[in-house]
Each structure stands twice: as C-alpha cells, then as structure tokens.
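User: Fold this; tokens only.

Assistant: Input:
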Amino acid sequence: MRKVLIPALLILGTASLSAQPVVDARKVSTLEEKIATLEVAFGQRNTELRKVYRDLEKKLSAAAADDTGAKLVADIQRVLKSLLASARAQAKRPGAASQAKARALLKTGIPKALAKLEVAPLSELHGYLQSRFFAFLAESDKVGDALTLSDAEIAQRMLSDAIDQQVPFYERWNGGLSDTVAATDPFRKIHKELADTRVALAVAKDPLLAFQIGCEPGFARVPAGGYTIHSTEGFITGIRSKKQRRAAIDRPVWIGLYEVTNEEYLSWLQSLSDSERQKHLPRNSSSKFLWAKDPETGQHLPAPEKLKHPVVGVNLRSACLYALSLGCRLPTEAEWCAMAAGKDLRAYPWGEKYEPERCNDREAGNKDTTPIGSHPKGRGPFGHYDVAGNVAEWLMTYESGKSVDPAAIENDGNAVVRGGSFEDSKKNVQTGWVWLKRAIYDRDSTTGFRLAKDPPN
C-alpha cells in the first residue's frame, strides 16, 4: 500500500517495552562492523557470480547452436526414459490413488534421474530442470494427461526456456536460471545475510521498526495478548463513561502506520462510478463538499498541498468500503487502544508526559491537519504515527462495545472515535479520551481513519 516493507526476521515482544526505546550503541557498532565485513565478502561473491553467469551463457549458447540443443534433449530423454515409463504405467491404472502414486513416483525419481545427466552444461542445471518438470506436471490435473507427451517433447519442454536464443540470456537468467543454479548459492547466502544484518542494524538504531518486520508495507504489528483500556471520558459520553477494563487481542493485528490520506482516498474514489463517487466525497458537518470542484474535469479534488494530509469528512460506511477495497478493515476499539497505549497503559502514545512537539493538537497552533508522519517523535509503542491529534479516527466498535458489521452498519448506531484532532486540547488527545459519533450520518473536518488487517495464518 505505502511506505517501507521490512523483510520477515523477528518479532519483538512487549513485556519490557519502555516509553522511549533505548538504543544500544555497542550493538549498533557491532552490526556496522559486521556489515563492513559482509560488504567485502559480497563484492567477492558478486565477482564469482558474474563468472558463473558468463560461463553458463557461453555453454548454453554453444549447446543451442548445436541443432537447437538436440544433444541436451537426448541426454534428458536418456535419464528419464525408465522413470517416465513406470509413471505412465502407474497412471493408467484406474482410481485416484493411481494418479497419486504416479505423482509420488515422479517426485522422488526426478531428482535421482537428473543426477545422471552427462552432457554439459546439464550437470549444472539439475535444480532448473527439476523445477521446470514439476511446473509442467502441475499444468494437468492428472499425471496421466501430462505424460501423454513423448519423452522427447517432455525433455524439450523442460529445456526450451534455457536454450531459447530468441530471448536475451539475462532474461532467461532472471526468469528462473539464477534461482536454481547451485553455483549461485554462495552469492544468495551472502546476499541474504547482508540484507538481514542491515535490517538488524535499522532495528538497533530504531527499535520500533521491529514491529514492521513481516508486515505488508504501511503496517506495523500490534502483538496479541491482554491489554488494559484506560477509564474513558469524552464528548457525548458523560455518564456513559467506562471504568478501566481489560481487553484481550487473540491474535496479532496489523494496523496502518499512518492515517489514510486524501491522495489514497482519491485513488479509490476515481475507481467508482459517478453516482457512487458522489456518495463518498468528503463533506463537513453541514454536508458541504470539502474538496473544490476542478473546472476542467468537473470532479471534486483535494488541494495539491493536501494530498499527503489525512482524509476527513467521511462517515464510517465510506471508511469501511475504502478499507474493504484493499482487503482491509478498520481497527476495533480494543485494537486501537492497544496500539495507542501499549502494555504499559500510556497516557499519551509516547509516554506519560504531554509534550507539545509530539502531536498536532490545539497547542500546536496549526488549526488544520498536517501531512501524515509530521510528528515522528510522537510515535506510539509499536511505531504508529499521529495516534494522538491530527485527526480523530473511526473505529469498528459501537458505544455498547458490540463490533460493527461493515455490511450492515446500524442507521442509528453510535460508533467509537478516538485519538483527538488538531482542534482538541492536550487533555483530549490522551489515549483514554473517546467520542461517540453516528456511524452513518456524522461527517466532519476533524475525523478520519486508519486501516487494520489480519495477518495470514
């Protein structure tokens, strides 16, 4: 969706998380030294890889020039002949079990057969030929259907991409050869180690980055577990305010690092029909469009300088439909509170003490939204931005605590809104402050939303 994706490497727990993560200078120094050493080794492996590339290119070019690889095809036929005959015989027997046995026979037999190849450079291409064979086999539901081709045709299918001189060698290399040639293993190993160490260094310098590891771009993980939700107070709640309570998150959840922007919301609107677009255009509490109409296109568009600002003026229904279009949803109240206050139940996302430079609230004096991520010092316990201030955020929970069903939002339902906006005081942007707004009808220039997503199993 947006922002930086950090490769899967580790999961950081929360038990000892402090309000201000401590940077271990010694660890940073050690990792920097390791990277310097790995970069030298990487350069050496890269030189070796170039030699592997050139040598294989020459060998395959020479083989292809020799009657379009006839010797290579013949050698593959030779080592597969007995195995394919046995698999065909097995596949011809009635019943699904016969197909499964034929497939199992090939699974164990192909690697052993290809190990007997003799004609250069086939001995260097075991992994590639094996992957090509099983890709070909997967094209048919039944093994017997795939094996109706002759041995020569199967061998040709396995080899065709490797010796196709109509395709530049670098495309063949990038299209599968480099991933399966054993001689490239040392390069792949050092490449991965260097990448992992760079990630480890980034996390050592900024521990909150650990919660982005393994997530899709633009998200950070809120770990599963038990959390405490602050005693709540806020506009409309009055006597309905709730005492401090416990909430459990059964499994980790990915929550958007940033609030959804005007630019992102506009991209979704432009995918809709004209009539649908009109329903979801941002409006204020008086139903006036917040985006001006472009005289050339006739479309309502955000001001160019506001593209990176969070979108406001949308109701819960519009927010849910946008999220659904991306395979996402909105956070529940419990998830949002966990994201905002963490295990240590912070008064503000960054800690207990109010510090004006950490958020866009009334004290900041902006009197408007600011671009997402403008207050990096105000990140929450898991690295999320603008949790306090900028815009308040719709959540997928009703006043009663019942979860919102995006497909059947209650017309008279009051949904929870948290976080406070640029208009709110320092008290009102605390993690315990809450508003209730009508899920269908309320739109205003201070409320937006961020996304949530359930990780794949």
